[in-house]
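I am still getting used to backbone structure tokens and would like to learn alongside you. Would you supply a protein for us yourself, any chain you care to pick? Start from the sequence, derive the backbone structure tokens from it, and show both lines together. Go ahead whenever you are ready, and we will take it from there.
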Amino acid sequence: MHIGTARTALFNWLYARARGGKFLLRIEDTDRARSTPEATQGILDGMDWLGLDYDGEAISQFARAARHKEVAEVMLASGAAYKCFATQDEIEAFREEARANSASTLYQSPWRDADAAQHPDAPFSVRVKAPREGVTVIHDQVQGDVTIRNDQLDDMIVLRSDGTPTYMLAVVVDDHDMGVTHVIRGDDHLNNAARQIPIYTAMGWPLPVYAHIPLIFGPDGKKMSKRHGATGVKEYQAMGYPSSGMRNYLARLGWSHGDDEFFSDAQAKEWFDLDGVNKSPARFDTKKLENICGQHLAVMDDDDILGEVEGYLAAAKHPALTAEQKTQLVSALPYVKGASKTYPQLIEKAHFALTQRPLDLDEKAQKQLTDVSNGILKELTPHLQSGSWDREALEGAINAVCEAREIGFGKVAGPLRPALAGRAVTPSVLDMMLVLGREESLARIADFAAMCPSA
């Protein structure tokens, strides 16, 4: 499930949910080589991670092949479609000759108006009879009225020579049978709408409302692809982006509501309308994504963050948190989530709460193993052993050492950081001590002091 697919699904979800409609999920698995169980599960997992709930069960398009074939046969019987006995070699020979003569390669089957008596006893495909004269107008909610000359349309195949229906037929039949009223999809399908309309016409079915949205481009202005980095939704979960931030960013990618950049799901549902969708392609910007995700992390409920952290660790194939680590992480969240943009950043900042004694010191932390650090920590310890264990009391204890040594707060925080976290770069020392509690904080300080040389 790629980012473009996810954005399209999100737009459909927002549009349906805001209007009390139904949001349906169909797995278009007619391409049997690509439609593996793993690929289908990837779509379902991506929808689940993004929080895009759908109504009813997911529908397999392949499972409805008999119904698609039935419609093709109805069209054949009514004269809206015809049997084509042209072979692949004949079609390719026609196109090679057309290319050599700089002519149109649009195949015009000689069997379109052939008498049934002329039909050979041979395999055939079924082609729709597309209009040859005039124009087809697509009334699109995003692109406006799009006019396509009918002489540019081919008699597309709806049933292959092996009797299997094509995707182009299956999509139309399924949309009709599922009661789809609005089709919101990428504008690379715009020409497909013109090719599919003859099926609706032939069957006497009402057309859905079309809204073809622009594609997503990379920072270089070219269609999003793997050369720009990650493109799959699951890759972004494995990189640790919060799903609410991804929803917010994708909603804003090609759609706008004034100058609003950061908004909730409820606001997106209230505001979203097709009028706000831009016609031009949107550019994917990782920095903007991270900025939005950081804003969402700052306001998310701690329980929601914990659940998403567990999902991130699983997606990234990292070890799961122990029960004790989960408890400690929740305790640390109020102090670390406001400064994090992704879950890897959040976990790094919460490292002090997730690790256990004896701490492994990183390279910068080891530089604090000095006699000066030893002296500061030993002088601080008595101030921490009694009295209240709150921010004011802890700040007072550190300030007492600062005054006695005539040094700044940072000079005391210098050895305290590696003592409490094993790292030189950490959250506030006061925050860490509040999370760790008196007993654990003093034990870590004692461990670190014992590693320092004496004065």
In short: The chain is about 50% helix and 10% strand.
